[in-house]
Amino acid sequence: MADSDIVRRVWSGVLPLEIVIDLPRTVHSQQSGGRVDDTSEQNYSTATYLFAPRVSYLPLLIPTLRTRMKQLVDPHARDLAENLDPSTVWFEADGGVPLKWHYPIGLLHDIHTLHITPSTSRLSPPHLPWRLRMKLERYPVEKIVSLRSPLLNPVPATPPPNDGTPLKFEVFEEKMKKVAAVVQDAHVNLLKESDFLRNGSTKKTMTLSRAELGQLWTGLETHDFDLFWSIFTRLITPPSLSSHSLSSVSLATTSAPSSSALGSTTTTDQPAPSPNELSSPTDAPLSPTGAQDPSPRSLPLSPRWVPMRAYREGKPVAQDLVPPYSTAGEVSEETTLLKALSILLPDSSFITTTTTTTRSTSTPLRVLIHGSDVPLEAPVVWLGMNMTYADGFVHVVVRGA
Amino acid sequence: MSDSPSAPNARTQSAQNTAKVVVHFRPTGNAPILKQNFFKITSSYRFQTVIDFLRKQLNVQPATGEVLLLYVNSAFVPAPDEIVGNLHQCFHDAKGDLVINYATTAAWG
């Protein structure tokens, strides 16, 4: 089901970044030298360049960026790097938009470069490297989640004392460990959320051992495909037929009669799984047809729902129950990306215009996953296996809707 | 949730987004109980609104380091910026309520 080549390519995707580091002057006003005082009203900045994994998270870049700061000639920058508290670091896109650190870097790029249309930009696709600003102070707690235990103790962080003296000595590595734990916590909870959608419970995530969870995270931190995917594949592989409703599976066999592997002739006409089933994570009982089938693996695998989120500029994130298969009367077929978007974005105009093939040419529609244009005919089950982010969700960015 | 803070863009949202959903709070472990367990909340609000509301109801003071954890369906902790309507749509129970289990110590994972 999973196409290992595609999965590996998606995982390997990197994004060239130009990161402008804003170096605040105020903190180190005691720094000797007249020049510092002369320009004290204005921060100054320095740019650095790196490739960031699309599936990774911005705070995980902080150690690298700190190393770059330490290499700068300016003793002030080196001093800032030495005393850097990673929990105060945040990133900003062009136009002063604070970036959510719990979104994958690639998704952030796709969302925040949506407004750059070919007509307004010299370059198309959007200008690369993607230019970000790294900020060391004035963390916008109202706009982005704090990096100080947001999920375990979700309160707005109190701003650090601004007297330039660290409260207690703690080496950067220790502070960074805490920040990474906060990011990991957010990641694991997203994994659980997507697990719940796929399987009706978080059993798969919860039964991972501490070592396996650690391996998953190390794989993400170090961008190691084998380390991450050897665990992750278990989380996103759909349950077998016996564990949930037969309807979608049996309907799939009727829609794909040419596949000889689908030996079963079950054509039970059960209703599609309803949202209410989610409240009772216990497995649905086997129907008589399923019980008679001696080889469950001859039937196609399917998740309960495909975890998807859709993003449009200036609109709240859309998330809904996307069924792997859709039924229209007697006929059932794989849910396409277009169908999924019509569920996620019911108010969107492009759905109707696209389906009637009279799409307006003035606003080119783009549907991006991992920065790639994805055909609207793509089945969501396939996308859920091959194009999920590391949090288990298929994040779709839509322009022109 | 009459005393919850209003979302900045609430007025400009469409009618669909100003719809309300029912949230069902359930205590876990030694968490204090509420007199009233069911509340209506505007679906376009962020989950942070729910956290702030429950914190106020239970008088849990962040300043003193008191912990309050909110889980959906005893399963996961949503990010504070997730939209309540999305969570309700995807995870409501058979009665149509979004069940939120709250705890004063870590309960699930």
Automatic annotation (TrEMBL), chain A:
Residues 255-303 are annotated as: Disordered. Residues 255-268, 294-303 have a biased composition (Low complexity). One of its GO terms (molecular function) is Atg8-family ligase activity. It is found in: Preautophagosomal structure membrane. Residues 306-398 form the Autophagy protein ATG5 UblB domain. Signal peptide: none annotated. GO terms for cellular component: Atg12-Atg5-Atg16 complex; autophagosome; mitochondria-associated endoplasmic reticulum membrane contact site; phagophore; phagophore assembly site membrane. Its main location: membrane. Pfam families: ATG5_HBR, ATG5_UblA, ATG5_UblB. Residues 182-237 form the Autophagy protein ATG5 alpha-helical bundle region domain. InterPro entries: Atg5, ATG5_HBR, Atg5_HR, ATG5_UblA, Atg5_UblA_dom_sf, ATG5_UblB. It is a peripheral membrane protein. GO terms for biological process: autophagy of mitochondrion; cellular response to nitrogen starvation; piecemeal microautophagy of the nucleus. The keyword Ubl conjugation applies. Residues 11-135 form the Autophagy protein ATG5 UblA domain. Conjugated with ATG12. Belongs to the ATG5 family. Involved in cytoplasm to vacuole transport (Cvt) and autophagic vesicle formation. This is Autophagy protein 5. It comes from Gonapodya prolifera (strain JEL478).
From TrEMBL, chain B:
The keyword Lyase does not apply. This is Ubiquitin-like protein ATG12. Keywords: Autophagy, Isopeptide bond, Membrane, Protein transport, Transport, Ubl conjugation pathway. It is found in: Preautophagosomal structure membrane. Forms a conjugate with ATG5. One of its GO terms (molecular function) is Atg8-family ligase activity. Its main location: membrane. Belongs to the ATG12 family. The keyword Protein transport applies. It is a peripheral membrane protein. One of its GO terms (cellular component) is Atg12-Atg5-Atg16 complex. GO terms for biological process: autophagosome assembly; autophagosome maturation; autophagy of mitochondrion; glycophagy; piecemeal microautophagy of the nucleus; protein transport. PANTHER family: AUTOPHAGY PROTEIN 12 (PTHR13385), UBIQUITIN-LIKE PROTEIN ATG12 (PTHR13385:SF0). It holds the Pfam family APG12. Ubiquitin-like protein involved in cytoplasm to vacuole transport (Cvt), autophagy vesicles formation, mitophagy, and nucleophagy. InterPro entries: Atg12, Ubiquitin-like_domsf.
